[in-house]
Amino acid sequence: MTDTSGVLAAGPYHISFDWPVFFSQLFGFVVIIFVFVRWILPPLKRMMNKSQDVIARQLEESSKAADRLDEAKKSYDNALVEAQVELERLRADARADADHIIVQMREAATAEVERVRKQGRDQIAQLHRQMVRDLQTELVTNMLDRTEERVRQQLATLQAKADSVDKFLEDLEVMANGQAAPALKRRAQSRWN
Predict the structure, then answer these.
(1) Core vs surface per residue 111-131: b (16+ CB within 10 A) or e
(2) Degrees, nearest 5: CA angle 65-68-70
(3) What contacts 154, CB < 8 A, 6 or more positions away?
(4) Residue 15 φ/ψ, nearest 5 degrees
(5) What is the C-alpha to C-alpha distance for residues 130 and 27, in angstroms, rounded to an integer?
(6) CA 6 – CA 20 distance, rounded (Å)
(7) Tens-place pLDDT, residues 136-160
(8) Residue pair 37/43 in contact by the 8 Å Cβ criterion
(9) Could you tell me if 178 and 184 are in contact, meaning their C-beta atoms sit under 8 angstroms apart?
């Protein structure tokens, strides 16, 4: 018979349990665990804690950034609404100013047209008066020249001068005696006036 104290299974696999190998492997495993816990795990924990802190900080900064982004969007939307309101107010003010300027320009144009018309009428009236004066002066001058010419023609001969003086004296005598007819008086007056 064979010693079956360390054999766990007999058969084709022939598994056996060797206590010194087990203890040596267990001792090696404990040494590895001890080295791992003593020198590898603390730096690994520090690195993991550092990474967790960095990730937590990044998450916090990300949430703060998201909050700031929301605030910025709200501020942008508010500024956009305010800008549109201001734009509408400026447009309304510009329209009111434009309407006011148009009214002022129309009033100024109307006043200017009226001033030019009045000035034109005044100039026409002044030119009319000047022309009437000039025509009157010219007419008087022409009539005096023509009358003088006719009188000279009539008095060119001695007989005509004598007849003219006689006629004048007769008219004076008739007027002095009061015997002249009214028509003769008028004719004598108009001839010498």
Answers:
(1) eeeeeeeeeeeeeeeeeeeee
(2) 110
(3) 160, 164
(4) -90, 130
(5) 144
(6) 11
(7) 998 888 888 888 888 777 667 777 7
(8) no
(9) no
User: In Å, how far are 16, 167, 171 from 38, measured between CA atoms?
Assistant: 34, 172, 171
- Alpha-carbon torsion 33, 37, 43, 48, what sign? positive
- The residue type found at 150 is R
Structure tokens of 132?
């009437």
Q: Which positions ≥6 away from 192 have C-beta within 8 Å?
A: 168
Helix (H/G/I), strand (E/B), else coil: 16:
strand
98 near 90, Cβ under 8 Å? no
Cα–Cα distance measured from residue 117 to residue 114, given in angstroms and rounded to the nearest whole number: 5
Separation of alpha carbons 168 and 151, rounded Å: 14
Encode pLDDT of 22-77 as tens digits. 999 999 999 999 999 999 999 999 999 999 999 999 999 999 999 999 999 999 99
Coil, strand, or helix at residue 154? helix
Q: What is the pTM (predicted TM-score) of this model?
A: 0.38
DSSP 3-state assignment of 8? strand
Q: Are 175 and 185 in contact (CB under 8 A)?
A: yes
